[in-house]
Amino acid sequence: MNRHSWIPLGCAALCIAVIVPWVALAAAGGGGFDGVVNSIESRYHEHAMRIPLMGLASVVAGVATRGGVDGVHVAEFEHFSAPVDGEELNRLVEEKLGQGWERMIRETSRHGGEQTLIFSHPEGKRMGLFILDLNGVELDVVQVSVDADRLNETIIKYKHHDRDDEHSSN
Predict the structure, then answer these.
(1) 96 FRET partner, CA 20 to 30 A, in 26, 31, 43, 137?
(2) What pLDDT, in 10s, does the model give residues 16-58?
(3) Helices (H), the chain
(4) Fold held by 31-168
(5) Can you tell me the distance from the alpha carbon of 99 to that of 28, in angstroms, rounded to the nearest whole number?
(6) Mind listing the pLDDT tens digit for each residue in 74-110?
(7) How do residues 129-153 score in pLDDT, each as one tens digit?
(8) Cα→Cα distances 83→41, 102, 137, Å
(9) Which DSSP string do the residues of 23-56 spell out, in sequence order?
């Protein structure tokens, strides 16, 4: 097999890696990240901008953190002008995320223009996180899977040490 025949084979493998999970999610009834985003679009008549090549960015994040971060999904609603009822938004997210997700944080400003929801989901050694943040006219939706131990190892590598710490260890 010559080296040029690897290109179509690699493209086919990449397509399978992207399409199969998408089809499985669609068959599961439109829950999870896409279910939440689609429901927000439908309910509030707003359109989400999905970040192009996010699958590739997710792979790069996984490699850079040695598996500490994986499965990154991001959608952004710019110019989100619809009035939002915090209870209704919370119910929508809980319903679409499905079983196993637990709300950790719900913060709502007095007038409802700023809202944050953070949910977690155990995934064996990993933890799934779902974050929805409405800040005035921008609504961001993020889902990520993290391995806390691996992520911590990566963070420690880049931690800056205080001069006092260096002197006290000598």
Answers:
(1) 137
(2) 544 444 444 443 447 899 999 999 999 999 999 987 788 888 8
(3) 6-27, 32-44, 54-64, 86-97, 148-157, 163-168
(4) TATA-Binding Protein (3.30.310)
(5) 13
(6) 999 999 988 888 899 999 999 999 999 999 999 988 8
(7) 999 999 989 999 999 999 888 777 7
(8) 13, 25, 10
(9) HHHHHTTS-HHHHHHHHHHHHHT--PEEPTTHHH
